[in-house]
Amino acid sequence: MTDAPPTTITVCTTCRQPALREDRDRAPCGEEMLALVARAARGVPGVDVRGTACLMGCEHGCNVAVSAEGKMTYVLGRFAPGPEAAEALVGYAALHAESPTGAVPYRQWPQGVKGHFTARVPPLAMPPAL
After folding, report:
1. What is the bridge-based pairing of β-strands 47-52 and 73-76?
2. Contact 30, 13 (CB under 8 A)
3. What is the pTM (predicted TM-score) of this model?
4. Rounded CA gap, 37 and 51, in Å?
5. Closest by alpha carbon to 41, among 89, 76, 5?
6. What are phi and psi of 28, to 5 degrees?
7. Which of 28, 52, 90, 115 gives a 20 to 30 Å CA spacing to 13?
């Protein structure tokens, strides 16, 4: 690992899965997802975790973004909070951190993230030529 900025997993803390969206007696599933992802990321080099209110992907809750300075950002959704989903997200983020551009070949994706990508956003500033 280099001195590159870390890859950050941003978890939407206000997300609710579509079937539970109107149930205001329960905490948003995003809060649980944040705790699970933070636990799974402990000790993983190059990966940070944070929460934020509303990633505006309500139809895809639970939503997360995987990003790093100068790299592609990926938005993923349709997760049910659970250790398997959290571990898959952290595994993908670790691969994102190792990639100079943030792009990770499909064959390397953890099974638990396949089918969950909702958007890819190019970096604001392109990294310097290698």
Report:
1. unpaired
2. yes
3. 0.88
4. 10
5. 89
6. -60, 140
7. 115
pLDDT higher than threshold 90 for residue 69? yes
Residue 86 backbone class (left: φ over 0; alpha: ψ -120 to 50; beta: rest): alpha
Main-chain dihedrals φ then ψ at residue 85, nearest 5 degrees:
-65, -45
The residue to which tokens 């290698």 are assigned: 130
d(CA 16, CA 80): 9
The domain locations on the chain are 7-121
Structure tokens at 34: 């944040």
Residue 91, pLDDT score: 98
Distance CA 103, CA 100 (A): 8
* Token code pair at residue 40: 């799974």
**CATH number for domain 7-121, candidates 3.40.50, 2.60.40, 3.30.70, 3.40.30:** 3.40.30
Which amino acid is present at 42? R
